[in-house]
Description:
The structure is a single chain. The protein is built from 20 helices and 14 strands. By secondary structure, it is of the alpha/beta class. It folds into two domains: 244 residues, NAD(P)-binding Rossmann-like Domain (Rossmann fold, 3-Layer(aba) Sandwich); 155 residues, 3-Layer(aba) Sandwich (Rossmann fold), CATH 3.40.50.720. The strands form two sheets. An eight-stranded mixed sheet has the order 3-2-1-4-5-6-7-8, sandwiched between helices. Strands 11-10-9-12-13-14 form a six-stranded parallel sheet. Helix 9 links the parallel strand 7 and strand 8. The radius of gyration is 26 Å and the shape is elongated. The N and C termini lie far apart (88 Å). The site of nicotinamide-adenine-dinucleotide has 26 residues, from helix 2 and helix 6.
Amino acid sequence: MGSQGKCGxxxxxxxxxxxxxxxxxLNRQELGGTDSIMRVTVxxxxxxxxxxxxxxxxxxxxxxxxxxxxxKIARLRNGEPVIYEPFLEELLALAxxxxxxxxxxxxGGPAAESDVIFIxxxxxxxxxxxxxxxxxxxxxxxxxxxxxxxxxxxVVNKSTVPVGSGNLVETLxxxxxxxxxxxxxxxxxxxxxxxxxxxxxGCALADSLYPDRIVIGASDEGSLGIMRQLYQPLVEQSFExxxxxxxxxxxxxxxxxxxxxxxxEMIKYAANAFLAMKIGFANEIAxxxxxxxxxxxxxxxxxxxxxxxxxxxxxxxxxxxxxxxGKDIQSLLHTAREYGYESRLLQASLDxxxxxxxxxxxxxxxxxxxxxxxxxGLLGLAFKPDTDDLRDxxxxxxxxxxxxxxxxxKAYDPIAMKAxxxxxxxxxxxxxxxxxDLAQESDALVLVTEWQEFRTLDLASLxxxxxxxxxxxxxxxxxxxxxxxxxxxxxxxxxxxxxxxxEQREARAAPGEARP
Length: 516
Ligand SMILES: NC(=O)c1ccc[n+]([C@@H]2O[C@H](COP(=O)([O-])OP(=O)(O)OC[C@H]3O[C@@H](n4cnc5c(N)ncnc54)[C@H](O)[C@@H]3O)[C@@H](O)[C@H]2O)c1
């Protein structure tokens, strides 16, 4: 620090070169009077890394985000996020003027200057179901190579990693140190923590700034203390809510739950497995509802009112998707098998979800009989609204099946079409400019993603453009009454009872039949 001169504004500031004011760093008073401003490196600028970096800089920490992908870093330096996430671009701009955030391709310099180094790289599934830890391993080694004895650092695993990865990271950091500075390794001190991420794409900023809980697994008090300090503004909610991401009414202190490393790693997997299972359960019950004539949304409301169950994640649909649930359940199954345990519940959760995607094809077959040569329009491609993420998206599975069966597939998505074109050039999908274009001459529409703009579509106008007016509502976005009144032959998920009731009502109200 000496050569850089003394900073008059921040107790722990290491950005003295050009002066903090030039870097736009706020003083401690402006950040709520805390003495907790820290220097942070985040490795990986995907959904988790970019959002984590932006939020930590917004609450006052000085953050560098690092990625090996030069294209991503170039775009981020221009203030352009590489993912679609509402308000992320705005938050990055604000973060630059608060704690300060920059983007690099080399981890060495930033990691050496940091108190906390997050690993937020991808952990995609291998064909065996096991999580691919190679990116994590490379990141851990590069951190080790950057370490010196100037300060105590915490290496924090934010990627979702198999149980035991905390220990692996510690070993790899040590190996990185031994390779780079064999003579100094005894003087280089660091701790390892696990800080699982629970954000949901589409509302990632709110989830990160106002989390239900922060879980920190650490094996030493020093690391835990630094993590408490880092998250103090979030725990205390002492920062001003950014525009566009309002603080939920009544939010008090956020619980920080400290655990062992292994428990923290397990908490992430268990949380995702439970949520996936809850959706799968709703789908199973919906399928039975269809057969017995019950209305699944009513049944879900009825059970969700039980405080032991809760109403969220009980919406029947075409199944869950996204980058996490499937991969994390596979990884947990793999870990369980390594320990000689066969988890039938987790396996069933995967199987039920795969079958649910197929349900759409069955519904189309029931209505159209022959799918070969038919034109099917997909309303939505992203695995959920407000994201362009297509990883394990049900839409892709449905499109693949339909194309394999000889159907023509058209699609319209407000955000994810560009990503789909780039990532799946093999899928011969005809991309449309609007829902109206999609409906034109189609034999059926399938609502796959419940984008906000789909809620207000003019259904009658869409029906009027179609060759056959079939609507498979894979998210139960419309009422059977509204869709039927618009001229559609409507099918939802688990909703035949309501449709029949509507028909019966219509029959009762038919002209000539006097109503009391
Ligand atoms: N996406 C989510 O909703 C979500 C939610 C919770 C947890 N997670 C977990 O967080 C982790 C990251 O997920 P994501 O969706 O952000 O992944 P992502 O694939 O979008 O981004 C990962 C980034 O890491 C970069 N990278 C890989 N190796 C690197 C290295 N050695 N040095 C620097 N950069 C490197 C890649 O270039 C990529 O930009 C995963 O383990 C995931 O399971 C994701």
